Amino acid sequence: xxxxxxxxxxxxxxxxxxxxxxxxxxxxxxxxxxxxxxxxxxxxxxxxxxxxxxxxxxxxxxxxxxxxxxxxxxxxxxxxxxxxxxxxxxxxxxxxxxxxxxxxxxxxxxxxxxxxxxxxxxxxxxxxxxxxxxxxxxxxxxxxxxxxxxxxxxxxxxxxxxxxxxxxxxxxxxxxxxxxxxxxxxxxxxxxxxxxxxxxxxxxxxxxxxxxxxxxxxxxxxxxxxxxxxxxxxxxxxxxxxxxxxxxxxxxxxxxxxxxxxxxxxxxxxxxxxxxxxxxxxxxxxxxxxxxxxxxxxxxxxxxxxxxxxxxxxxxxxxxxx
Length: 322
Fold this sequence. Notes:
By secondary structure, this protein is α/β, with parallel strands linked by helices. The chain has helices spanning 12-23, 55-60, 64-70, 84-94, 129-148, 177-183, 203-215, 217-220, 235-245, 257-260, 266-278, 285-291, 299-312; strands at residues 3-7, 27-32, 49-52, 75-78, 100-104, 152-157, 159-161, 188-191, 197-198, 200-202, 223-227, 233-234, 252-255. Helix 4 (84-94) links the parallel strand 4 (75-78) and strand 5.
């Protein structure tokens, strides 16, 4: 039986990926801090071996990579490596011992886009610390793949959404009150002209992409892939679609970003500024052609599923019917 170790498998993508792997007949080991639970229940989790690890403490003692190697995985799916030093410690320990290492990166490695949609042929040009670190890890892995045959694949998710997850909203932040505003038909102000883009992906589609990469190992090793829905959304188009989803006519106003942010929560401002600055839009044609990947959800379908769950949880408030 092929053994898959998922690092950080209790999170949003793992909620979907672990049951899919178990259904495929893989032996699955989930390595995590043990503080999170899957967003959706599934009997498959009863067949999963759980390993609780304090990664930060292990890395400080140079133990984490060897701990993963000692599990003797055939495949490692790494959802939560953010520091280049963490990647190096892990990879040095498992090099020559695994058949496939899949690294979760981000579309933030692109930074400012020159052409849209961005393809994997575009050079990385990260503009924030998160993107720079992920790009550095990618470069390290791809170099090892070329020079030493290390079986690495990097995948770049967009804004992950799904049941139990707060989606990036039409203002480009995570404030759920925006959906309540839209649902009530109230006016919503967008930054600039609302023409910057957002590119979501359902966590289930990320999980299914991982299966495609595993199934097409030869085509995926030594490569980076975008992992998003088929099309990005403009912030304006997204807002208008959500108004209509709630049976409302859009009521939008616009203001330059520096004016729009006045008086708003600073975390919302930082998040929106990051999304407006990046304005992501990525192509998945490489995944379609090489891996046979086709996302099940459009961006709007993924967001709307998330919003329905937020309504059920009382985090998005609908207006009272008369």
